[in-house]
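Action item from last meeting closed. Structure (468 res):
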């Protein structure tokens, strides 16, 4: 590319040709998603382009997401004009610069994707615009998310194949016939030592067991359910020391919203949303959710808020990889399970790589991607590739992975954000194993804001923030 980064690309090439959308943009509704899911489970088919009207970065209507980011990008460009007049930028100016980078990357990604989709549907997409939109999407994703790594993909593939071979050797052979690239020379490598895992397990339970016991007592052991998830979350946050919003005080809110999917933290609003779930909430699942969503996502946002910087509350560019990775790793450390056990992070990574066409050179459809990830999930059970009930269950689990890979993207592009879970977990495993800090100190270090502790620029600015 001729432009060194996303923001200059946006100013020089993309912004002048991004015009207002023609006509309304339909929201991707809960009803529509449920209908797609039912069809996918029953017959294994997802229509091409089914997820294009999803918002790219959140659960808003696509038009609302685009409108919001256009406004934020306009404001960010105006702010940068003022910053460029500063010869020696202050700490505040540097933090605003991080905010601008993050904002421009997000706006560029959404703008490029929405324009490519709509102009393609209207038959007005020119060759030049198609090239510009694709370059905008690539540049933005490079700044925001990790890029596909074949070695990590091979590591994930090796876990899939070994699980299939352990469950049913003939079935594993069938899996390799369909997807030869799953056979790799990479052996599973243990990054976290037993000593490190044991140390963290003991510390986390010493710190959080009393909190969970209090939450159980206040909620009642038999009362935890999907319906009470927001109240249980509020109780946990209160016991963990978060400021809780009230009529007379600012703080965090925990709300129930059946229109939303899963569990979601909105750092800028200091809000946690408990959405609809496919299965009933249990205490072990709730505990892992609290460690991941509250003690990583929300805690880092709150500490960034306390430091007085939007960029630390909402995330420095590229923070997501280490944050998602650390959240997943804490789930493993809390439950005492090996982080190398095959899980959703491995399926997400392989689904994105497969959908992007980097595993075998073939760019698949949504239906082909569903078949791929469903085969991976089903193969870890004996007879899974031929048993109809197991196939249906695998499709149900695989549907979300496919949606995440294709959401809001034009034809030929995939969303790379879900690479962050596995690549980030591997990065954080290496970071924890190499640290001399005890768990109590290292957890506080990781919670100081939405940063990547392995990013030199992030840590340089954090040194200034903490010294101020």
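Sequence:
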């Amino acid at each position: 590319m001729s432009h060194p980064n996303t923001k200059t690309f946006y100013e020089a090439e993309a912004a002048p040709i991004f015009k207002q959308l023609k006509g309304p943009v339909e929201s991707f509704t809960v009803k529509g998603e449920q209908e797609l899911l039912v069809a996918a489970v029953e017959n294994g088919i997802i229509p091409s382009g089914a997820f294009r009207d999803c918002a790219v970065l959140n659960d808003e209507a696509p038009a609302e997401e685009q409108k919001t980011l256009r406004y934020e990008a306009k404001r960010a460009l105006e702010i940068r004009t003022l910053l460029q007049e500063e010869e020696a930028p202050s700490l505040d100016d540097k933090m605003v610069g991080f905010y601008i980078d993050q904002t421009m990357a997000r706006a560029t990604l959404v703008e490029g994707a929405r324009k490519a989709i709509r102009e393609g549907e209207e038959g007005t997409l020119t060759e030049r615009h198609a090239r510009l939109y694709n370059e905008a999407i690539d540049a933005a994703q490079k700044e925001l998310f990790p890029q596909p790594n074949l070695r990590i993909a091979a590591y994930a593939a090796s876990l899939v194949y070994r699980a299939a071979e352990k469950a049913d050797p003939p079935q594993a052979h069938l899996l390799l016939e369909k997807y030869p690239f799953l056979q790799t020379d990479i052996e599973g490598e243990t990054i976290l030592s037993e000593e490190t895992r044991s140390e963290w397990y003991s510390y986390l339970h010493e710190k959080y067991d009393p909190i969970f016991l209090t939450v159980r007592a206040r909620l009642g052991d038999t009362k935890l359910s999907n319906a009470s998830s927001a109240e249980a979350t509020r109780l946990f946050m209160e016991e963990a020391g978060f400021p809780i919003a009230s009529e007379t005080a600012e703080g965090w809110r925990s709300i129930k919203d059946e229109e939303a999917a899963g569990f979601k933290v909105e750092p800028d609003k200091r809000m946690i949303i408990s959405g609809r779930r496919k299965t009933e909430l249990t205490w072990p699942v709730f505990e892992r959710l609290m460690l991941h969503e509250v003690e990583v996502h929300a805690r880092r946002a709150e500490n960034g808020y306390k430091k007085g910087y939007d960029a630390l509350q909402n995330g420095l560019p590229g923070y997501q990889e280490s944050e998602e990775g650390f959240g997943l790793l804490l789930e493993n450390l809390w439950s005492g399970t090996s982080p190398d056990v095959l899980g959703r992070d491995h399926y997400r990574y392989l689904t994105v790589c497969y959908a992007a066409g980097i595993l075998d050179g073939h760019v698949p459809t949504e239906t082909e991607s569903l078949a791929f990830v469903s085969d991976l999930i089903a193969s870890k059970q004996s007879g899974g590739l031929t048993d109809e009930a197991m196939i249906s269950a695998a499709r149900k689990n695989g549907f979300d992975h496919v949606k995440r890979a294709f959401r809001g993207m034009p034809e030929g592009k995939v969303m790379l954000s879900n690479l962050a879970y596995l690549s980030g977990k591997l990065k954080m495993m290496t970071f924890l194993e190499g640290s001399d800090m005890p768990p109590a100190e290292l957890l506080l270090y990781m919670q100081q804001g939405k940063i990547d502790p392995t990013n030199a620029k992030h840590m340089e600015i954090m040194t200034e923030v903490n010294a101020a």
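Note appended to the action item: Residues 203 and 433 are 15 Å apart (CA to CA).
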